[in-house]
Amino acid sequence: MKLIVILLFFFSNSFHVYVQSENYVGNYTKTMDSTNGDHTIRYTLELHNDGTFEFHSYNKLINGIPQERNTFGRGTWTVIKNIVHFHTETEKDFDEKYTLDFNNSTARFDHKDKTIFRFYKSKISWMELIALKKE
User: Fold this and answer.
1) What per-residue string of b and e applies to 111-124 under the rule 16 or more CB within 10 Å gives b?
2) Which residues have C-beta within 8 Å of that of residue 101, sequence separation ≥ 6?
3) What average pLDDT does range 59-84 have in this prediction?
4) Most exposed of 6, 98, 101, 132 (fewest Cβ within 10 Å)?
């Protein structure tokens, strides 16, 4: 009987974590354009239901050098108490294209608007406080 109670507890907690994670799966974006069209910043985050993610940052500055810049990140994510924790592994998640280190990055839905996903801690300085909208 004790074993049955332990197994039920384990499976119910596993199901709860799975359902909780499913709420976060999806695409998140933010685009900022200057009024004269000289500058564009676009962030895209994809949280996959297998616990992996991909991130893309695109910057276009007409008078910049270079004029366009793309940066990418990928790795895994988990949800603990409504906070998404991002993880990257050196051998698996980094290469010439994927260079952003998301280790110790955390994000969560905005308290007021559950479609806004906000980073509030990251090693990537410009990533902190970025708010993305769920599509």
Assistant:
1) eeeeebbbbeebeb
2) 73, 88, 94, 123, 124
3) 92
4) 6
Res 74: pLDDT: 98
What is the pLDDT averaged over residues 105-118? 92
| The predicted structure's pLDDT at residue 43 | 97
In whole angstroms, what is the distance from residue 66 CA to residue 121 CA?
A: 28
Query: What is this structure's pTM?
Result: 0.81
For the chain, what's the residue count?
135
Tokens of 101: 């280190």
Please state the domain extents for the chain. 2-134
> Domain 2-134 falls in which CATH fold?
Lipocalin (2.40.128)
- As a whole number of angstroms, the distance between CA 22 and CA 34 comes to 35
pLDDT in tens, 44-54: 999 999 999 99
Give me the chain's average pLDDT, please.
86
CA distance 68 to 89: 27
Task: Provide φ and ψ at 55, rounded to 5°.
Answer: -130, 140
- Confirm if 127 and 28 have CB atoms less than 8 A apart: no
